[in-house]
Amino acid sequence: MLPSALITAALQSHKAHDIAASLADEVGPRLAGSAGDKAAVAWAERTMRELGFANVHTEPVTVPVWRRGVETAEITQPSHQPLAVTALGWSGATPKDGITAEVMEVASLDALTKLPKDSAKGKIIFANIVMPRTDDGRGYGATVGIRMAGPLAAMKAGAAAFVIRSVGTASDRFPHAGSAMLKDVAAPIAAGALATTDADLLHATLARGPVKMKLVLLPERGKDAQSANVVGEVMGTTKKDEVVLLGAHLDSWDLGRGAIDDGAGCGIVLEAARLIAEHVRAAGRAGPARTVRVVLFAAEENSVAGAKAYATAHAADVAKIVLAMEADSGTDRARLVKLLGDPAAAGAFRDIAHALEPLGIVRDDGDARPGTDISPLVNAGVPSIEVRQDASRYFDVHHTANDTSDKLDAASLSQVAAAFAEIAFRVADGDGDLGRVPESKRKPE
Amino acid sequence: MLPSALITAALQSHKAHDIAASLADEVGPRLAGSAGDKAAVAWAERTMRELGFANVHTEPVTVPVWRRGVETAEITQPSHQPLAVTALGWSGATPKDGITAEVMEVASLDALTKLPKDSAKGKIIFANIVMPRTDDGRGYGATVGIRMAGPLAAMKAGAAAFVIRSVGTASDRFPHAGSAMLKDVAAPIAAGALATTDADLLHATLARGPVKMKLVLLPERGKDAQSANVVGEVMGTTKKDEVVLLGAHLDSWDLGRGAIDDGAGCGIVLEAARLIAEHVRAAGRAGPARTVRVVLFAAEENSVAGAKAYATAHAADVAKIVLAMEADSGTDRARLVKLLGDPAAAGAFRDIAHALEPLGIVRDDGDARPGTDISPLVNAGVPSIEVRQDASRYFDVHHTANDTSDKLDAASLSQVAAAFAEIAFRVADGDGDLGRVPESKRKPE
């Protein structure tokens, strides 16, 4: 089977890479509410206009603010060893001079949760859970709970502070940032992530005897700030009120430059929409039948405020969204394609998936997992197609300082953009649709 | 050809790895004159005693002291981007609030040296020289000059501060430390190294227009401190006054834990001597004919003070040192073996090299390059055999925070230790010797 003209054009372009690199290199870190976040919104509007999109605009999002401060950790006994650490999102602060305390290791969230009240009084709890490397993100799903729920469990056990082994797969000294469920907690515990190799050292040192550790984490809460979802469209024609929505998130964690998370996704969805516009223009048409809308969401990392604001603002027109797709899985090749939609749409989905075979992408008949930013839409019934990328290297770099533009893989990004473009165009320009997600498969919060 | 009993025993042991990991994990960073340096000397004495060495003792070395302080860098215009930076050894300090200045890029040490006096007045010079990856360290040799001599050249051009692209081969955000020739300069310039990916970003940003950068480097000079070379021996018998010297350096840079540089070398030479002792003991002998002496040198990284002190203290008995070998090339496999000695010893060397064939090590008839710590001995005539390790990955991690024990490769370290043991034993226990290095091949400072 020959690739479609759209796929061929996509594979001959490296714009998905170039867009992602531009966001990483010209804007860089852009945590919600920061100056970088504002610069990213301006970048997104400018980039969408340069790409020739219609209806380029921002939609306001109020974002909660948390800022990193000084952060250091060290083993002080039995011998001195500096440790690479970063505060988890929404972590509280230690006193300015830090906390020095005995370290108590736990091996699972379950074990941590079962600690009796105040049993860790005056201690620093260290949760040392190794994230397995998998090609589909299951390893992350299986271990990220300790980052999310561990801090609160450590507070309940009376701990003076809490550190985890980074939820990541590389052996190096880049700690992995990420949110903890402490945003709405009064007086949250100081909670950090050690780099994996520093967690290994702490574990090995504890195996030889008692260990004391000093932890200084000085993040702070700020007042809520204004950010925005940035929206642009390739206008439809005969069914222009119906929308194929392609989403990625514009914000990033603050340690790196957000190249693979989620500059890559921004590059994929912007390039997919650009390819569709170019494709219909080359055929002498004004647009596809339905509108293709790109939404670059605010604040995915710190609160999902952008996705929530979008779903709220568009509750009345969600029925007009015929498909939602999200790119937030990094820079590596797509391998599978999956649907979450009406079972009656299986035949239409088979045709779409068949068109992706020249890209080496295989249909999987399990349900797609909608990404974070489109989940509110899917839970309101919007069907979703997931382009599953190889995630085996993604968590080496995810949320670290090392998330920079050199990690982007241009050829793989072109392949993923090709898949997004082909799927979005087929649905936008097709006669039928993919129905709605049955109630039984929705996961309302 | 079957491997010797010594080689077989070496390949069945992982003690070279374990010793290196112990130094990295139980002592960690140990820059000359620091508390870690003192802990390393105590570790070395303890370890040599545990290994059963004779004559374990320290020999005093006065070391100059330089300490890292706060270090940050950022692009401030055209947009804000934090940069990963570290101060070069013997760098001066910026004012406490840093220097913010326009950046001027140079592409070579030659170009920097040719800048007219005061032509960089008020600017930060950025030397962006890409280190090539080679398997033998040539890439380092070809590019390290900018780190050593660049800062002084930048001072002469009137620069406000100086940064280089790290002399390293990985694309990541670990800046590479290392000495600059500023130790004896009054009021030295502030000189730092950017991580390679940050150098790429700075270069790409400069290609788009003028760039301002803020640099804060707050290192300080300390008073000279006391450190030590640590020495232990496997005593010889019939020619016990004659010595085969195996050297590595005990100190490390401060950012990482000195696992591959030079915990690996310490592991290799300590294990080689241990293997020889075990081998003769198994044969019911008291020792090899000649003495095998391990010297763990102080302060290789910041001043070579340990090697200089050793050569000075032993000037009178250098004629009794029949061979000097040094391990300071990391954790990867040995591939070549080379001699620097009396041309008349070529036949003896051929026999030694032949014994290494089961290890996959090939004889190279070019001259060995003596390592830094044994160079003063070689320049006094002591012959040297170089076991050349694959250096293609060494400079990914060299002098960075990422130099930690997880980077050690146990199987490769066993192979290198096997080569050191086989060579040292053959020379220590052999009838002849390797003569002296001809005057024409010595390189006195």
Primary descriptors:
445 residues; 16 strands; elongated; Aminopeptidase; homodimer; 5-stranded mixed sheet; Glucose Oxidase, domain 1; 2 domains; alpha/beta
Please provide a brief summary of the model.
Chain A is an alpha/beta fold. The first copy, chain A, has helices spanning 5-11, 15-27, 35-50, 109-113, 138-143, 145-156, 196-208, 259-282, 305-313, 346-355, 375-378, 394-397, 410-429, and strands spanning 54-67, 71-77, 81-83, 85-87, 99-106, 124-127, 161-165, 191-194, 212-217, 220-234, 239-249, 290-297, 321-326, 334-340, 362-367, 384-389.
Task: Please describe what this structure looks like.
- Two copies of one chain form a homodimer.
- With 445 residues, chain A is of the alpha/beta class.
- Chain A has two domains: 5-66 and 223-441, Aminopeptidase; 69-218, Glucose Oxidase, domain 1 (3-Layer(bba) Sandwich), CATH 3.50.30.
- Chain A has helices spanning 5-11, 15-27, 35-50, 109-113, 138-143, 145-156, 196-208, 259-282, 305-313, 346-355, 375-378, 394-397, 410-429; strands at 54-67, 71-77, 81-83, 85-87, 99-106, 124-127, 161-165, 191-194, 212-217, 220-234, 239-249, 290-297, 321-326, 334-340, 362-367, 384-389.
- In chain A, the strands form three sheets. In chain A, strands 3-2-9-5-6-7-8-4 form an eight-stranded mixed β-sheet, sandwiched between helices. In chain A, strands 1-10-12-11-13 form a five-stranded mixed β-sheet, sandwiched between helices.
- In chain A, helix 1 crosses helix 8 (259-282).
- Chain A is elongated.
- Chain A binds chain B through residues 25-29, 35-36, 39, 79-82, 84, 171-174, 197, 200-201, 204-205, 256-257, 401-402, 404-406, and chain B through 25-29, 35-36, 39, 79-82, 84, 171-174, 197, 200-201, 204-205, 256-257, 401-402, 404-406.
